[in-house]
């Protein structure tokens, strides 16, 4: 099987590097599947899972938005934050989910100072991390 070199990088440093047969990622325009030799492109990513398939093994990385850059021999995912499934602290994500839900519940109760869009994004990041850690994909 042909492979393509895949790197996931964040402001904190590299998170993932491997030769992969199929990369799936959640672009803002929908789910993308990238095979080796794909035409060059750049796509903005949504909060979601990146699936990295080689042989019978599929690894998952939780990505909190960013960009996917495809070149014939290399796929780079540049993310605000990214974690491999095994590095996710589920208790931390559950706590972040609870905090975000509490903020969102106060919507319409006169708490104009709360940034609901920010809470919605925090909730999406937390749910994504929980799903990736539990391999719910
Ligand atoms: P929290 O409120 O728990 O900080 P957050 O969604 O606001 O969550 P981010 O700002 O997206 O966190 O990430 C900050 C840093 O912490 C990043 O390096 C990210 O990879 C890491 N991180 C966040 N949540 C987790 C988690 N549940 N497990 C492991 N690493 C995490």
Automatic annotation (TrEMBL):
This protein's record includes keyword Transit peptide: no
Compartments it resides in: Cell membrane
UniProtKB keywords: ATP synthesis, Cell membrane, CF(1), Coiled coil, Hydrogen ion transport, Ion transport, Membrane, Transport
InterPro entries reported for this sequence: ATP_F1_dsu/esu_C_sf, ATP_synth_F1_dsu/esu, ATP_synth_F1_dsu/esu_N, ATP_synth_F1_esu_C, ATPsynth_dsu/esu_N
Gene Ontology molecular function: ATP binding; proton-transporting ATP synthase activity, rotational mechanism
Main localization of the protein described in the UniProt heading: membrane
ATP synthase F1 complex delta/epsilon subunit N-terminal domain sequence ranges: 5-82
Domain of life: Bacteria
Record text on subunit structure and interactions: F-type ATPases have 2 components, CF(1) - the catalytic core - and CF(0) - the membrane proton channel. CF(1) has five subunits: alpha(3), beta(3), gamma(1), delta(1), epsilon(1). CF(0) has three main subunits: a, b and c.
Family: Belongs to the ATPase epsilon chain family.
UniProt name for this protein: ATP synthase epsilon chain
The organism of origin for this protein: Aeribacillus pallidus
